[in-house]
Amino acid sequence: MPSIPENILQVRTxxxxxxxxxxxxxxxxxxxxxxxxCPPDAVRAALAAGxxxxxxxYVQEALDKIAALADRRxxxxxxxxxPLQSNKTRPVAEAFDWVHSVxxxxxxxxxxxxxxxxxxxxxxxxxxxxxxxxxxxGVAPDELPALAQAVAKLPRVRLRGLMAIPxxxxxxxxxxxxxxxLRSLRDGLRTQGxxxxxxxxxxxxxxxxxxxxxxxxxxxxxxxFGARARPGPAQ
Length: 235
Ligand SMILES: *Cc1c(COP(=O)(O)O)cnc(C)c1O
What we know:
235 residues, alpha/beta, binds pyridoxal-5'-phosphate, Ala_racemase_N
């Protein structure tokens, strides 16, 4: 079985090839290694291979892992990519560097209020529901502009961009539509004066389609750490 460092190398090669195809610079896409359900030693193995940014879904699991890896905190960037309830915002504001899954103003307000002063602002993405069906998470596209303008005004968080978890789709051409939608929503907010540099989209099965449509951060779990007992994103 290929090792975690070999898998990271392979994913980086996929990202570079996709960038070449899209006429984008190779460094324009950040790899977020999704370490949910993986033990701290798997994160250490990825760290040793030069990986710094890690994504987690489940708040309590992530807090335990961040604590277990406290000796390497300065080398690590922790991103929450899973659902966040309002009663869990304080530990998240204290422990994470980024939150990708903000879809309500109340959550962003609490994160801003609870972000400790000695830390730099918490970096945020707004999760957008880009699928037609009644998905459980993500702001609806027509409600996005008002939410983005309100979040951008909060003092202790910095709105960086948008995130989406499209419905699984095998066809590489059809994979592009939800990513293109997220990009156009981001472009729309930019014309409204918001300085957004991040499109968090693309997973193990669709990273090429996401890079083609402008992803700046791809979230890769399975292709780095192998299949999980709990597959798929918790939405
Ligand atoms: C699990 C998860 C990923 C990674 O998915 P893979 O298919 O394993 O690459 C990405 N984003 C979110 C939000 C997830 O929950």
